[in-house]
Design goal:
Elements (H helix, E strand, L loop, with lengths): L1 E3 L11 E3 L2 H10 L2 H19 L3 H14 L5
Antiparallel strand pairs: 1-2
Helix pairs in contact: 2-3
Length: 73
Amino acid sequence: MIFRRERSVFEATDEYIFKHALLRDVTYETVLLKLRRVYHAQVAQWLEGIAGERISEYLSRIARHYELAGEAV
């Protein structure tokens, strides 16, 4: 179902992926909207903190997570 990637784009960080996009989508849809927003905000904040000097590479991803969190971008 879920697999650990051999290499993460971020140093000293584990990264996981779903085996199938459909499984990922179904799992995502089972999370309450209120919790999804919280999780998206947490991911955006985490990305901001870990990206360091490479933050420009992740700005669109960070913005998308804030948007899905219901926060102004």
